[in-house]
Amino acid sequence: MTAAPVSSRLPSLTGLRWLAAFGVFIGHAYPTAAFIPLAMASVSFFFVLSGFVLTWSARQDDTRTAFWRRRFFKVFPNHVVTWASMLVVIAVTGVATAPGFADDDTSQGLPALTNLLLVHTWLPVRELIFSANPVSWSLAAELAFYLLFPLLFPVVARVRAALLPALLVGVIALIWLVPLVSMTLTGPPVAEGQLDEPMLRFWFVYYFPLSRLPEFLLGVVLARLVRGGFTPSVGVLPGVALTAAALAATPLLPMPFSVAALTALPLALVVVGAASADVRSVRTVWGTRPMVFLGEVSFALYLSHYQIILLFDLYLGERVREAIGATATVLLLTAVCTLVAWAMFAWVEKPVMRRFGSRPRPGSARPPGVREASRTGGS
């Protein structure tokens, strides 16, 4: 097989972003035993996809500073808007962002500041983890990935193509190691603000940024494989089916394994299947214009949906569900959240990225390892 062209666009992966965002949305709209594992798998998909896309789009003429600048202006504008709007929601309604908190526990002072700076998940402290906009916890992990990427990528880029399958196995083993380590954690007697032992383990396997790094690295390795010519004709459906089977199997293993370990391989198959179709110019439903549009607004959807659902449940939820039923309610909420996300994308995210998130001009200095990535991608 020939190496995948680095400039190839991957519209199917963009479209699949909306499917993952919807998985998180439905998990918050209906937090049941059926949908919560789906929401966790959807976040894991975002982490894998992030590593894949950043590696796929890495260029010789980039710099660390330019890379970090683009990531900053991609993440923080929408984050700041939803952070501020969530503080307004808390102040006006008096509702807590998570069960067991008063509104002033997580919306004022240090908790809100740590959420704004996306450092709120590095310590197992309830008031920090669940502060302000709770869904921004994943951005804390993404921010860590972005800071580490220019340092980690040159290492992966130098791995010979023949060793990539072994590296893939090693990364998946790390993903399985995280829940194993979490089950060994014990804590002191619970004090105010501390997590009890089960929640301490959940914090480590779910919220702690470094525990999610192997999922990001999985995407990095997968991108190198596809760039090197590994483009199997599997499509997306086999990976989706295996992901559904893995979600159905979550009750069979302790909870920490349902966060990422069970779904790592199926989600990898989804990513490779979609990217391979795009590289081979095979049309997919995920790469159609409507799905690409939805994928482009998915980041704003992810950040804004929680407070929309919170307000809906607070003021209208019970009456609307009784009046139109569960299915119509989901469609209504999906439409409202998508419209809000589109507005954020059009008026916040897109203008800021156009103004501040452009790539460096050709000829600027390169981060170490990007040249090697271009040379070894198809070796």
Which features would summarize this protein structure in a list?
mainly alpha; globular; disordered C terminus; Acyltransferase; transmembrane helix
Please characterize this protein's 3D structure.
With 379 residues, the protein is an all-alpha fold. It has one domain (11-376). It has helices at 11-29, 36-56, 64-93, 103-106, 109-116, 126-129, 137-157, 164-182, 197-207, 209-227, 237-248, 256-259, 264-279, 289-296, 298-315, 317-324, 326-356, 370-376. Helix 3 (64-93) packs parallel to helix 15, helix 7 packs across helix 18 and helix 16 (317-324) crosses helix 17. The longest helix is centred in the last third of the chain and has 31 residues, at 326-356. The termini are close together. Mean pLDDT is 89; it is low at 1-7 and 361-379.
Number of strands: 0
Report the β-strand fraction as a percent range: under 5%
- Give unreliable regions as ranges: 1-7, 361-379
What's the order of the H and E elements?
HHHHHHHHHHHHHHHHHH
Q: Tally the structural domains.
A: 1
Short description:
Pfam families: Acyl_transf_3. The chain has 18 helices and no strands.
Map the helices and strands.
Layout: H1 11-29, H2 36-56, H3 64-93, H4 103-106, H5 109-116, H6 126-129, H7 137-157, H8 164-182, H9 197-207, H10 209-227, H11 237-248, H12 256-259, H13 264-279, H14 289-296, H15 298-315, H16 317-324, H17 326-356, H18 370-376
Helix pairs in contact: 1-2, 1-13, 1-14, 1-15, 2-7, 2-10, 2-13, 3-7, 3-15, 3-17, 7-10, 7-18, 8-10, 10-13, 11-13, 15-17, 16-17
GO molecular function: acyltransferase activity, transferring groups other than amino-acyl groups
Transmembrane segments: 12-30, 36-59, 80-102, 135-156, 163-182, 202-222, 234-253, 259-279, 291-312, 324-348
Domain Acyltransferase: 12-344
